[in-house]
Amino acid sequence: VQLVESGGGMVQPGGSLRLSCAASGFTFSNYDMSWVRQAPGKGPEWVSAINTGGGSTYYADSVKGRFTISRDNAKNTLYLQMNSLKPEDTALYYCASGRSSHDYWGQGTQVTVSS
Fold first, then answer.
1. 97 near 29, Cβ under 8 Å?
2. Backbone angles phi, psi at 66, to 5 degrees
3. Given the DSSP bridges, would you call strands 109-113 and 9-11 parallel, antiparallel or unpaired?
4. Do residues 89 and 82 touch, judged by C-beta distance below 8 A?
5. Helix (H, G, I), strand (E, B) or coil at 80
6. Could you give the percent of the chain with pLDDT greater than 70?
7. CA pair distance 73, 12, nearest whole angstrom
8. What span, in angstroms and rounded, lies between the C-alpha atoms of 56 and 21?
9. How far apart are CA 10 and CA 107, in angstroms?
């Protein structure tokens, strides 16, 4: 099983980034998927989730209206479009299988929002 995130980087406040997560080694289309982040010195924070077909999405209040989760089951890829980024969005972002419990995790991609 592999989950490989990409697309992180440094961006100014108000900017945008699109994260991707390439999945392999399991039947991606059978799993709800999530994004979870961890800021320096803090515990993990669930950010967003999407159901198997992509028709239902869920967001933490802290990102609602700014982030959009999506998936392409044909490409075994999960996405997170992040707009209107704030310094408090700075964290290591992980993709993970499942919605509330997570069997599989990626290695994370760093997002830094700073002027």
1. no
2. -115, -35
3. parallel
4. yes
5. strand
6. 100
7. 31
8. 18
9. 18
pLDDT per position as a tens digit, 38-74: 999 999 999 999 999 999 999 999 999 999 999 999 9
CA atoms within 13 A on the CB side of 25: 11
Residues in the chain: 115
Q: Tell me the per-residue pLDDT of 19-44, one tens digit each, with 9 for 90 and over.
A: 999 999 999 999 999 999 999 999 99
Amino acid at the residue 82 = M
Q: Which of 7, 3, 4 is nearest to 19 (CA)?
A: 7
- Identify the CA nearest to 113 among candidates 69, 68, 67, 48: 67
pLDDT on residue 100: 86
d(Cα 69, Cα 6) in Å, to the nearest integer? 14
For residue 77, pLDDT over 90 is answered with yes
